[in-house]
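Long-time lurker, finally posting.

We've been working with Phage protein (Jingyaoa shaoxingensis) and I want a structural starting point before designing mutants. I don't trust myself to interpret raw outputs, so I'm hoping someone here can both generate the structure tokens and explain anything notable. Sequence follows.
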Amino acid sequence: MLKIRLQGTLKDIQWFRRILEKHKELDVLEVSDAYTNKGTSKYFRVYVEVEEKE
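Top reply, 14 upvotes:
Generated this for you. Predicted structure of Phage protein:
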């Protein structure tokens, strides 16, 4: 299992999440809610758990 921390605008995070979900060798197990970064309302962070398919 691999845990990934995505940071950026909501549009950037959604774009990368779609890439992960389309990847045939990976299963996206869990995606957290978007958390705002301190001091800004533009940038967010999301935690994603992925696992390699067998």
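Before you design anything, note these points.
The first strand starts at residue 2 and ends at 8.
The chain has a mean pLDDT of 92.
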